[in-house]
Structure formats: structure tokens, C-alpha cells
Amino acid sequence: MRKRVLTSVIYVLIWIVLCALKWLVPVWGALGFDALFCAISVLCSLELLRSVKGVSLSQKVLTVAFCAVAVPLYTVTQMTTGGGFIALAICFGVYLMALAAFNVFNYGVCTLRGTATCIFTMIYCGVLCCILSAVNHVENNSVAAIIMLFITVMFTDSAAYIFGSLFGRFLPRKLAPRVSPQKTLIGGFGGLIGGMLGGIAAYGLSVGLNELNGVINSDTLGTAIQFSTGIPAIVVFMLAGLVISIFAQIGDLFESAVKRECNVKDMGNLLPGHGGVLDRFDSMLFCGVIVLIAFWVVII
What we know:
It contains 9 helices and 2 strands. The chain is mainly alpha-helical.
């Protein structure tokens, strides 16, 4: 537990530093988060490919190469031309054809199962990390989007753990017993509450930063959070936090299912007390899609 808490504290400090950089240095400050997402993409792909069998070395190298290229390619293209997802789709297609060629010309060593595993890894680690980068580069309120992404996931995980620890013995019904026997329904319910509280906290922090920005830059009033609906802003953030919490828990359980398929307890041991990088960021990979949709459709 001591190692877990220490790792969490370091993680939060890094997040605060990256948020401050993004807030204080418009445009270029966002690259700190992009570097983090690129590192997550590469490390997660290495952990996943190390845990599965039947994938050749050449297939692994090609897959990790895609995961290393995907986020920088998306970021540079999005910042210069706005066509980040188009560039990502083209890159994915090229790497997909390369995997197919490996399977043809090195048949027997490169199997179809290995190719399918590589495609899954490219999507799960590479493409979803590009979604996180897309959240980092939403046209308006990108600081609020990043805060929403990290805060709601942290609140969800913490609340689920607290509720499960306190009430799990009294309400022991399992959430997904075949995938993760330790997780209870009451813990999942606590995660939903945590997600909503996280949404409220993200709203308060975003508004506070906007007001502080107006004070620091006396020639402006700061960038206000705008909405495409007439629903009160705090309600929108709270409801978004609820949906994000649902997908955060689905992402966590999905990664547990992947570990069961691979017959491993943890994907790695890089983060003491948490396991591997994929063990720590599994929830966030799924939540990026929801946050991006929220800031495209509702929060403008």
C-alpha cells in the first residue's frame, strides 16, 4: 500500500505539472501531455505483446513502431493542418498492409493469430492513445477537457476502492466474478458516485483556472466554458462524469479480461503498487472517447 500511495502521489504531481504547462503556455504547453500519451502508447504495447504468445519478433517490432509513431503523427498533423485523424487512418492502413506482407512472405513464423493480436494492440494502445491526444487538442476548453479526463478517472478509481473496502463485506455481490472476482457491485456503485463528484470537481477547477486567467491577463476575461445546450454547466459536467465513470470501469474490467486470456496477474511491474502502465491507464484509454464526444457535442 505504501508503494501504491507513493506512486499515486508522483503520478498526481506529474499531472499537475503538465496541466500547469498546458495552461501557462498556450499551444506548445500541450505537447507535454502528448509526450505522456506517446509514452503510454509504447509502454502499453510492449507490456501487452510481452504477455501474449504466438507473435513473431518482426510483428512485435512493427506493432511497437506504429504505437511509437501514432501519437506524434496525429499531434503534428492536427496542429498544422487539422487532419490528425486522416493521417492516423493512412498510417494505420500502411502498417496493416505491412503486417499482411509479413504474414505472406514469412508464413509459418508470422501467423494469422499473431497478426490479429498485433492489430488489436495497434488499436487498443496506439489508436486509443491518439484519442487521448485528441482530447488534449480540442478546439475550445482543452484545459477543461484534460482536467475532466484525469479527475473523473481518479475519482472513480478511488471511490470504487473505498466503497468496496468499506461495504464489500456487507454487500459481497460481485460486479464481474469471472473477470475480476475482487470487484463488487457496491464498489462499482461507489465508482459512479466518484465519477459524478469528479465531474463537479473538474468543473470547479476549470472555472477557477478561467477566472485566474482573467486576473493574470488583465486585458482579457479568460476563456469561459460554453455549452451547446441550456442545461446548467455543473449538471453537464456531473452527467458527463457519470458516463465517464461507467466506461472507466468497463475499461478496467476489459483489461482484466485481457490479462485472464494472457494468464498473467499484472501486465508489468514498472509502477510499484499498480503493476504495469496498462494496469494504471486501462480505464483512461476507454474514457478518452467519451470525453472527446462530450467536448465535441455538448461542451463547446
